[in-house]
Amino acid sequence: xxxxxTTTYATTIDAIRDAARRIAPHAIRTPVVxxxxxxxxxxxxxxxxCENFQKVGAFKFRGACNAVFKLSDELARRGVVTHxxxxxxxxLALAAKLRGIPxxxxxxxxxxxxxxxxxxxxGGIVYPCEPTVADREATADRVVAETGGxxxxxxxxxxxxxxxxxxxxxxxxxxxxxxxxxxxxxxxxMISGVALAAKAVKPSIAIIAAEPANxxxxxxxxxxxSIQPIAAATTIADGLRxxxxxxxxxxxxxxxxxxxxxxxxxxxxxxxxxxERAKLVIEPSAAVGVAVALSRRSKAISALQQGTPxxxxxxxxxxxxxxxxxxxxxxxxxxxxx
Length: 338
Ligand SMILES: Cc1ncc(COP(=O)(O)O)c(C=O)c1O
Hints:
Elements: E1 2-3, E2 8-9, H1 13-23, E3 32-33, H2 36-42, E4 46-50, H3 60-70, H4 73-77, E5 80-83, H5 87-99, E6 103-108, H6 113-121, E7 125-129, H7 133-147, E8 150-151, H8 158-174, E9 180-184, H9 189-201, E10 206-212, H10 217-224, H11 249-255, E11 258-262, H12 264-278, H13 284-295, H14 299-302, E12 310-314
Parallel strand pairs: 4-12, 5-6, 5-8, 6-7, 9-10, 9-12, 10-11
Antiparallel strand pairs: 1-2, 3-4
Bound molecules: pyridoxal-5'-phosphate.
Pyridoxal-5'-phosphate binds near residues 240, 283, 285 and 316.
């Protein structure tokens, strides 16, 4: 735990450094990429931390891997449990497979079959449940009771947050001149780890949360000074539909400088620009960070000296290529896409 004079946070810089050592044999040290065309539009040199190249295609592997490898042998033998249909499910399944232990994944019955197959492909055991929070939690509790497995939630967990913080350690090692880091925010696990690590290494750095306006619980929570959960978020950025948790809210309240929201049109335009100009496959949640930079609405970034580099975490690349959010019309005479 990190403690300020009044607050204890979920994790510490020492725990994040331990996490970096723990996950190093398994996780990819992702590259940092530049793109002058997008930087020009943003008005600052941008540095993209490519977590779309991480194992399972998203940063989530860092937190899951840290949590799984930190378990004692005795606990590990009984396996791990989570309820998720997103990147955390795949990340936990792969981390468990690498440790040689079972991963029990509770997933809503209506989750796309590709997601279920991806989890099963990593050796995860899928438990279908009704698509309600109540049934997800009840099913996960039942699985924990039956298996004795350890519940590893997607963001509200100290070891998960510490694992995500390793993004910032690598980013600042490679780009010590960053003036700000933009981090997409859902439940806030990634930004909590990044903020705790980055501010410990470089206290002057600004941490900016990037959030869809259609899922603006973090913006409202920060304004209100208390968690303001969102009932039903309707954003294309499916990784960002969740609300802040008890461990992530205090970090967002105290260490995140600003939450900037963007529209659905801005998210899609940013995603397309990254495909086209940076030649990177990213999912909508990652495009939210780019959209914030392109919007030029961040006061913290405007306050930086001209020419100061700004980091953006491209948090994932798991996008359904058959359902890209813009029309793909084949040139006349070309075969239609299969
Ligand atoms: C690609 C991607 N980006 C961002 C997030 C949000 O992360 P957090 O919930 O830690 O804020 C998620 C969560 O599932 C995700 O999958």
